[in-house]
Amino acid sequence: MKTYKIIPLPLCTIELDMAVLTYRFNYGKKIQVPVVAWYIEGADKRILVDTSANAKLATEFRGLPAEEIMSFENALGGLGVKPEDIDIVIQTHLQWDHCANTYKCKNARVLVQEEELRFAFAPHPILAPTYEKSLFKGLNFVVVKGSYEVAPGIELLFTPGHTPGCQSVVVNTAHGKAVITGFCCLKDNFGPPADAPEKLKEVTPVISPGIHINAQDGFESMLLVKGIADIPIPCHDPGYLKIKSIP
């Protein structure tokens, strides 16, 4: 099976209460989380998973304290790529911080789950503040439903809960299967709560994403990825501010 590398491209950081990402745990702990686009290196096509967003949008659209790291163009330029060179954008979902630069990839096919596209254009009020239609209106969507092979060794995995049509991306690497989570989470979500009593840890093998339309589905999607992934890649973990390549 063909193997690939995944290059994290963090464009900005936003300040959040940790409980925003770890449902019912870690209240009051402030963290800086990266907003990341992921480039899959080694494919026949130029493939991005999500396209991230900038600090200005985070502050103006969502009112979040944010700091810029680099522009989308400069991030891709470091790889010798321009936005118009991208062949495929895999949208894990269509919340603002995952798709703000997709319109710049003018020649790309944009892979999205059917349920996500439907929901994004008419979101439930619970999540409506996290969608901005102008960011994804008119994109060249390729609508999929459930699992889908993007290329040999790159597969879409339906992981609802965070949003109704959230998907994760399974990538075959030299060190096993890496899974880029579509749902917004940290490494802390993949185990029991660190400070919890032992009795609680026994019944909480993972922590559901804090932002969700369905907490139970989010929990099950966490378990699914934990079981599949040799290398789980929680998409907002601060560790990816320093990691240059996976593996």
| Main sheet summary | 7 strands, mixed
CATH class: Alpha Beta
- CATH level-two architecture: 4-Layer Sandwich
What structural class results from the helix and strand content? alpha/beta
Here the CATH topology equals Metallo-beta-lactamase, Chain A
Mean pLDDT: 97
Silhouette: globular
- Straight-line distance between termini: 16 Å
Unreliable residue runs? none
Oligomer kind = single chain
Helix content: 10-25%
**SS strand fraction:** 25-35%
The CATH superfamily bears the name: Ribonuclease Z/Hydroxyacylglutathione hydrolase-like
User: Radius of gyration, rounded?
Assistant: 17 Å
The main sheet orders its strands as 4-1-2-3-5-6-7
Number of strands: 12
Number of separate domains: 1
Topology as a string of helices (H) and strands (E): EEEHEHEHEHEEEEEHHE
In DSSP terms (H or I, runs of 4 or more residues), the helix count works out at 6
Verbal overview:
The protein has 247 residues and is an alpha/beta fold. The protein has a single domain (5-240), classed as Ribonuclease Z/Hydroxyacylglutathione hydrolase-like (Metallo-beta-lactamase, Chain A, 4-Layer Sandwich), CATH 3.60.15.10. Helices cover 18% and strands 27% of the residues. It has helices at residues 55-62, 72-77, 96-99, 114-121, 198-202, 215-228, and strands at 5-17, 30-41, 47-49, 66-68, 88-90, 109-113, 141-144, 148-151, 154-158, 167-173, 176-180, 231-233. Strands 4-1-2-3-5-6-7 form a seven-stranded mixed beta sheet. Strand 8 and strand 9 form a beta hairpin. The longest helix is centred in the C-terminal third of the chain and has 14 residues, at 215-228.
